[in-house]
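Case study.
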Amino acid sequence: MKNEIFRLKSYLCVGLDTDITRLPKHLPATPEGMLAFNQQIIEATADFAVSYKINTAFYEAQGAEGWHVMAETLKAIPVGKFTIADAKRGDIGNTVTQYAKAFFEKMSFDAITVAPYMGADSVTPFLAYLDKTVVLLALTSNETAQDFQTLPVGEEMLYEKVLRTSSTWANPSQLMYVVGATKATYLQKIRAIVPHHFLLVPGVGAQGGSLEEVARFGMNSEVGLLVNASRSILYASAGEDFAGQARQEAQKLQQEMAITIDKYAQR
Amino acid sequence: MKNEIFRLKSYLCVGLDTDITRLPKHLPATPEGMLAFNQQIIEATADFAVSYKINTAFYEAQGAEGWHVMAETLKAIPVGKFTIADAKRGDIGNTVTQYAKAFFEKMSFDAITVAPYMGADSVTPFLAYLDKTVVLLALTSNETAQDFQTLPVGEEMLYEKVLRTSSTWANPSQLMYVVGATKATYLQKIRAIVPHHFLLVPGVGAQGGSLEEVARFGMNSEVGLLVNASRSILYASAGEDFAGQARQEAQKLQQEMAITIDKYAQR
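After joint prediction, the assembly is written out as follows.
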């Protein structure tokens, strides 16, 4: 992933949150239509994106056929791109072993998002796959993240405790964190706790974070960031030109990213 | 569900954590074999169980075919049983809406387990389905539950804060909690915070909690408990008599439960 980031001067992750009800009208509102849409989005954006994130919920909503579309979409992603199953799984050991089979063996994702509530048990079985990565929720971008994530736990907030504790479970090559971009002011605190881990930042674009601010406070010498954009790319146009418009949107983000890499990252 | 509990004098939930590698030898180790196994387990235990819980991980590990087995298994569960998707999903609103479609529309589960880390956003979209129930993780039975769930947050522990906060999101007809049986001593504290909610208690049987202790401290006047058993029932025998042995195991638990209902529940 790191080579690809410097090669493309991009840390763009395209989020394939493909809503069957929002496909362009010339495509059928069917699982087959979703797959065709994804394949064209991937092809159109691959020059500018280093990563693709598949939000499992949108596929599960279509049942077994949707699950098949997810697997086929993954196959359409070019070799060298970092593929993330945005599944937010989290369970006890023997169940996590099954999730690892689902996402790392039956399908061949590079990474999976995981919720921290059940502790190390939710992460450990994934770590047996040495070339795979767990992306742990730390601070999310939604409004009610504050219900629990920012509660004071001793001297710090819960999400800081999650970062501090979990960072001992695996080294940065196997562990990343989800950090909501709308909380860019928190990024300095986060980088003080986990200077070397990659951060997956949703919430730029439709969810509205500032790329410059994320880069300024979140980037490390290896870049250390993946910034996700979903709706702003997928639905850039509702017409037959959707792929071309998606490409332009991705390119625009990549160009902004290139500037921030030059400004903030040192090799 | 409440009628069924008093009719059968049982609060047994059978957990269909069906591991394709642990099927009896006379069944094929295929998705079809899983389905045949589940159908026989359900038929054998339906006289004693009021609820069935499908652990989605074991089905996802078989890909789209496994997802199909999950949907077909759900159809094999008799009307009147309370069906739970043990999916531990948790995400932001527009994603949760998709999970609701997956588990409440595309399939017709009565309930889904949900992780609390992202706050109310992870629960609210499910509540639009007035006849469905969210089962929120509170205190889980695994060892590393202590990494975060029992951290002190002000005067109480995180899981208590989760209970107190989330109990304002929905009334007890739409909200239940997962409470690990190995923490039965915590049940008194939990009942002080949520006296009326149903509790889903895993960890009796293979995970080793005491049914008497759970009933003593966890039962309310409407019983208010579902106790899950998975491996002790599913794998009671590895031979051709697996269904008969599963039935006996379920009946044994039901008989213990009937005693505790007479002892601790008042209509």
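Observations recorded in class. The beta strands of chain A are 12-16, 51-55, 82-89, 111-114, 133-139, 152-153, 156-157, 175-179, 198-201, 225-229. The longest strand of chain A covers residues 82-89. We will return to this complex in the next lecture.
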